[in-house]
């Protein structure tokens, strides 16, 4: 591996090391998740102080130490600070949810470049959308994350009876098995997906993230669909999400 590396990065979290240093955890397109030490970043006059904050898109210049197998930030150039996200508690909660999912999945567990682009889109749209569209950003991030991770069960047939389920019918999700049943086989299962929600998911996945967030969905479906996708993501991660503990979404 080269010792001097320049890469685009999205900062997900930071941690103080000693009195003045900052450990920056970021997602990169080629390296995946990276922990890099920004020496002196907590000193008032440091160029790395404000630029290495969570929810920032930037270019990082890294030095890789092959003996310690560790990265050091030598320079950084900010592209997008996502200041609207940082200034809104509601948006910070959602950005921290996205970051936690990426961290707990070790960068998505697959192609980090695709997950990087997804997270970059999610941060950008969360920073620019209206308050009314924030839940749509969450839905699109969760749905696309599951699709990229290959964790979406069949949405067109019942896992138990194998019958094709038309768009006018309801699917019932089984968290224990991560499959969908038709209404007859699934009974009174709590997590349901109706035809309109299925059409919305399939249609918007073919759109850009920005356009998908602007696509309408029946108001009564927004919260149930978001909750269903959260359950599916937690099934994939095999861990509860700390971002949901305060029930702020």
Topology:
Elements: E1 4-17, E2 21-28, E3 32-38, E4 57-65, E5 70-80, H1 83-86, H2 89-104, H3 112-128, H4 134-148, E6 171-174, E7 179-182, H5 183-186, E8 191-193, H6 195-204, H7 209-214, H8 219-237
Parallel strand pairs: 3-5
Antiparallel strand pairs: 1-2, 1-4, 2-3, 4-5, 6-7, 6-8
Helix pairs in contact: 2-3, 3-4, 4-8
User: CATH topology of the largest domain, what is it called?
Assistant: de novo design (two linked rop proteins)
The CATH superfamily of the largest domain is identified as Recombination protein O, C-terminal domain
Unreliable stretches = none
Q: How confident overall, as mean pLDDT?
A: 93
Explain the overall architecture:
By secondary structure, the protein is an alpha+beta fold. The protein has two domains: 78 residues, Nucleic acid-binding proteins (OB fold (Dihydrolipoamide Acetyltransferase, E2P), Beta Barrel), CATH 2.40.50; 156 residues, de novo design (two linked rop proteins), CATH 1.20.1440. 37% of the residues lie in helices and 24% in strands. The chain is built from eight helices and eight strands; from the N terminus they run E-E-E-E-E-H-H-H-H-E-E-H-E-H-H-H. Strands 1-2-3-5-4 form a five-stranded mixed barrel. It has a three-stranded antiparallel β-sheet with strand order 7-6-8. Helix 3 runs antiparallel to helix 4. The model has no long low-confidence stretch (mean pLDDT 93).
């Amino acid at each position: 591996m080269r010792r001097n590396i320049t890469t685009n990065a999205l900062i997900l979290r930071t941690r103080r090391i000693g009195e003045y240093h900052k450990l920056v955890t970021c997602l990169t397109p080629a390296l995946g998740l990276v922990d890099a030490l920004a020496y002196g970043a907590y000193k008032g006059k440091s160029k790395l102080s404000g630029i290495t904050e969570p929810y920032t898109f930037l270019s990082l210049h890294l030095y890789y130490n092959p003996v310690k197998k560790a990265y050091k930030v030598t320079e950084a150039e900010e592209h997008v600070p996502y200041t609207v996200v940082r200034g809104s508690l509601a948006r910070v909660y959602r950005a921290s949810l996205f970051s936690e999912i990426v961290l707990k999945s070790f960068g998505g567990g697959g192609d980090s470049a695709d997950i990087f682009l997804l997270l970059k889109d999610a941060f950008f749209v969360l920073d620019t959308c209206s308050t009314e569209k924030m839940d749509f950003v969450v839905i699109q991030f969760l749905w696309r994350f599951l699709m990229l991770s290959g964790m979406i069960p069949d949405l067109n047939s019942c896992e138990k009876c194998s019958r094709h389920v038309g768009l006018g019918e309801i699917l019932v999700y089984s968290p224990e098995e991560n499959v969908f049943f038709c209404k007859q086989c699934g009974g009174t299962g709590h997590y349901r997906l109706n035809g309109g929600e299925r059409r919305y998911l399939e249609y918007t996945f073919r759109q850009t993230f920005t356009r998908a967030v602007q696509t309408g969905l029946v108001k009564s479906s927004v919260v149930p669909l978001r909750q269903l996708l959260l359950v599916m993501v937690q099934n994939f991660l095999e861990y509860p999400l700390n971002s949901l503990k305060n029930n702020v979404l």
